[in-house]
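Final report, closing paragraph on structural work. Over the funding period we assembled a curated collection of sequence-structure pairs, and we close with a single example.
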Amino acid sequence: MTWDTAWAGERASEALAYLAQHYPEASASPELHPHQDAAHDAAAAEDEGRYLEALRGYMRAGRDEVLRIRKEAA
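Its predicted structure, as stored:
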């Protein structure tokens, strides 16, 4: 089975849209870089499971970072 780049792009778009909608402050956070790198590496390896887990980690990291920022601001 070959890697479906359209499918992968849709999943990445969904992850980005989720963060933009719920946690817009996370968009430029360097805390997300390791998760972006993990998703890229999984895509390069054509590993669907790792790719989805990396995107889930990306969304969790964005949420966690924004919650930390909001807590410090309060």
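The mean pLDDT is 93. The longest helix spans residues 48-73. We thank the funder for supporting this effort.
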